[in-house]
Amino acid sequence: MAQPNRNARQWKFLDIFTAMFFSLVLLFFLLVFTPFGDPLAYSGRQALFLSTSDPKQRHRFVSLVELGEHRQPIDPCPPDSVDHMPCEDPKRNSQLSRYMNFYRERHCPLPDEMPLCLIPPPLDYKIPIQWPESLHKVWHSNMPHNKIATRKGHQGWMKEEGPYFIFPGGGTMFPDGALPYIDKLRRFMPIKGGIIRTALDMGCGVASFGGSLLAEGILTLSFAPRDSHKAQIQFALERGIPAFVLMFGTRRLPFPAFAFDFIHCSRCLIPFAAYNATYFIEVDRLLRPGGFLVISGPPVQWPKKEREWEELQAVARALCYELIIVEGNTVIWKKPDRDPCLNPNEFRIGLCDESDDPNVAWYVNLKRCVTPSFINGGYAIGKIPGWPERLLRAPSRALIMNNGIDLFQADTRRWATRVAYYKNTLKVKLGTPAIRNVMDMNAFFGGFAAALETDPVWVMNVVPARKPLTLDIIYDRGLIGVYHDWCEPFSTYPRTYDLIHVASIDSLTKLPGSRNSSCSLVDLMAEIDRMLRPEGTAVIQDSPEVIKKVARIAHVLRWVTTINNKEPESHGRGKILVATKTFWHL
């Protein structure tokens, strides 16, 4: 019987093996050197992006970055994350309680649950239009969200026009523009003259009201939640108007007591008299004695809202607010400028006990009690200096701190010198049209912002919630800001600040009175990157050791950096890192 040809079988096997080998080589070249490999490469980045949810792997990666042992740029986040705000994630928050809109407040993932990646810009993103032209128009491609223009265009909010969104300056209660509405208010309030400086606009839309008040010397912080309008605060910030994502729900708003000279609601739909007048009481905490409260829209003389309107007036009477005028659907009240006044009322409103600190407002639940308001009348409108005198004069609340007046004056002098050094020696573009929206992440007394007062900028002064609560002094100066804990993401959209400034960045990650960190410097700087616009500037000051670490992290964020000495007048070993965020696309 004939034997099978073993060589034939062997050659058949080798042929198959050889064919498979060369096929794999060809596939390798296709994936690496042609566009066919891009989708697979992206899915690989996605796997890495998702794998950072493993806490151990994430910690290892962060350590490698801080030590400079990981030199490759951090990967981009997915394309659908261009507008991502980690603490205002609708999908995540939709599972939470609806009571008092709790689900629309800040709810942040734990650091270990957050993917470590860089938020990309939209596909056709352009460097924003510069101030003051930006007040009236912005690039459509930077926020291609047409919903507000479609739904609110007839009310003068905004409209699409060629490659732009145009802002006529209107709002739901002032469709003909904010300027005629402001002219109506000035008949009953001191809009001009520096008596009113700080204002809060609740439920602000695209912030045309606050933008129009800038010409009057009134600095308005506008806020609205991330809601069905989606991008209203994003539009406000793109326009160069001070704004902040915030929901009036179950907690105190992140501001000190008696901060605002003027509080405004234009169809903000906040139920001020509900829940035993809890929301009105919180407004009272924030409003300076002698300050003005303006509410336009429901329920003020509104059809089918008669009961709510009666309750709102009853709360104002209970707190002894002076009724200035009711005209159409607008009411203006003035808060008393004397000791807290309470009339007998149906809302069971009482005075807060002495143990309650009215300036503590970071994750503090709303309270149904009235805050004793001032020391010897020193906080009241008409008692504090007018604008701009109040900017450089130490306020009475600085007296509460040990050596407060001396600290205030020294801080003011130091920042005037340092800002001049930033401009003249480090060539930071402060004072030019390139910089409009500025944040100071560790503001203390607001000396940095005060030194910029003559520049065409506004400054979000952030006082870390775990540091001395000096935000009240910042507001007494006629500046604005918020409390925040920098171990959490900030409540703003990506790409909203032209310049972010921070002194002593390492201290923002530390527990009070401890050398131990409660979060990583890598996460903090990734958050700075999220907030910065492409080609935006970061100015970071700290010790040489910390700045060296910051520079290593900046490299993987794709920033271009220089390290500089402090100004000659300054004592100590500190260094200053100036970085530019590069403009990149997916």
At a glance:
The protein has 586 residues and is an alpha/beta fold.
Question: Describe it for me?
Answer:
Among the domains are: about 170-370, Vaccinia Virus protein VP39 (Rossmann fold); about 390-580, Vaccinia Virus protein VP39 (Rossmann fold). It is about 30% helix and about 15% strand. It is built from 15 helices and 19 strands. The protein has helices at about 5-35, 40-50, 55-65, 90-95, 145-150, 180-185, 210-215, 230-240, 275-285, 305-320, 405-425, 445-450, 470-475, 520-530, 545-555, and strands at about 135-140, 160, 165, 200, 220-225, 245, 260-265, 285-295, 320-325, 330-335, 350, 370, 435-440, 460-465, 480-485, 495-505, 530-540, 560-565, 575-580. The strands form 4 sheets. Strands 6-5-4-7-8-10-9 form a 7-stranded mixed sheet. A 7-stranded mixed sheet has the order 15-14-13-16-17-19-18. The longest helix is centred in the N-terminal third of the chain and has 28 residues, at about 5-35. The protein starts with 5 loop residues before the first helix and ends in a 5-residue tail after the last strand. It is a single-pass membrane protein; Single-pass type II membrane protein. Keywords: Glycoprotein, Membrane, Methyltransferase, Signal-anchor, Transferase, Transmembrane, Transmembrane helix. Its EC number is 2.1.1.-. This is Methyltransferase.
